[in-house]
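Predict structure. Chain length: 273.
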Amino acid sequence: MSTPRSAELVAESLTFSYGSCTAVRDVSLRLSTGKMVALAGPNGSGKSTVLKLLSGARRAECGSVRFDGRSVATMSPRERARWVAVVGQHVNPNLAFSVERLVQLGRTPHTGLLGALGETDRSEVQRALQATETFELRARRYSELSGGEQQRVSVAMALAQSPRFLLLDEPTVHLDLQHQHQLLELLHSLRRTRGIGILAVMHDLNVASLYFDRLMILERGRLVSSGPPAEILSRPELRAVFRAPVTVVQHPNAGVPQILLDRSVGSAPEEPG
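Prediction complete.
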C-alpha cells in the first residue's frame, strides 16, 4: 500500500480554561505526517488539554486547529476521527470485549449506519493487528491481557481508524522497560512505514530524546521551548522549568542528550537504621 500524500496538523494561538483557571495560553504548534513530536512539561502544565484541543474533544476559547487547511470546528466527529486517533491514559482494563472486536470498533468512522464491516474494513483491522503484533491475541478478552498488551491493543484500535495523525497521552507511563521499548519502536515504525504524524505527551525526557524529532515544553499552559531534543535538553533554563537539579550527559550509543537527576546540595543525611 502506498504512503498517502503529506499533510499537516496546525494549531494557532490555542487558549482554553476550566472555569476561572486558564489551562492553555496562546499555544501554537505544527505536526507533519511522518514526524514524531513529544510534548513535555511539569504536572499541570496543560499537556493533556492540548491533546483534547487538537483532537476536537474540546473547543478552544481562542485560536484554531486545522487538518491540512480545514478547521476542525467545521468537521463532524466522524470526519475528525478519519484524520486523528487518540490513545488516552485511561482505558477500562476490565473490558470484556475480545481484542478483535475492540479493534473493529476503530473502523466506526468509516462504516455505514448499521456498522457492518466491508472488505476494506476487515483488511484494515487485520493490518492494525499485524502492525501491533496483537494478531495472535485477537480471540482473547481485553481484560485478560497484561498492561503492555492492552496498550498495544489500544494503538491497534487507533490504527484501525486509518488516521493521518496519532495523539497519545503518556503512552509509556505504566509500562516496564521491555514494553516501553516495544511500543516506542512500533511508533517509530508507523511514522516511517505509514507516514503517520505522531504527537505524544511524554514525562520521560530521555525517551523523548531517543525517539522524537522535536520536543515541545509547556510551563503553566504556555509553550516555552520548541526544537530538536538535542537543542532543548541542553538549555540551562530546563532546570527552572522542571524545578529540579539535573545534569545533561550524552547517550553512549545514540549520542543524544540524556538527563540525570542530581542530589540536592546539602541534602540531609540518612537516619541510621
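Summary: The first helix runs from residue 47 to 55.
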